[in-house]
Amino acid sequence: MNASPFSGRATTAFVGALVGAAAGILLVTTAGAVALEVGGVFAALAIVVPTLCGAVVGAVLRPGHSRSNPR
I want to staple 63 with a disulfide (CB 3.0 to 4.6 A). Which of 2, 8, 31, 40 is the partner? Predict the structure, then answer.
C-alpha cells in the first residue's frame, strides 16, 4: 500500500526539520566554542532558522524521486 502524499510530505518535512535543528545546534556549539558568550537571541535564531528551512525543503521535495539516472 502506498502512503498518502500528505503523509509522505509531512514525514520529509519532519526529517528536514530534524536535520536543520541538528545543523543549528552544531552552529551554536561552534559559536560557543569560539566566543566566550553566545547571546540567547543568536542561539534561538541559529536553531530556529535552519529548522524552518529544513522543514520547507522537506515539504517541497517529493519523497522517492531523485535526479539520478539508474541504468
Answer: 8
Which string of b and e fits 24-46 if b means at least 16 CB within 10 Å? beebbeeeeeeeeebeeeebeeb
For the chain, the structural domain boundaries read 5-60
| 67 contacts 38 by C-beta, under 8 angstroms | no
Alpha helices in 1-71 (DSSP H): 5-34, 40-60
What pTM was estimated for this model as a whole? 0.69
Residue 61 has pLDDT above 70, yes or no: yes
Taking only the tens place, the pLDDT of each residue in 5-20 is 667 788 888 888 999 8
Task: Identify whether the C-beta of residue 11 lies closer than 8 Å to the C-beta of residue 64.
Answer: no
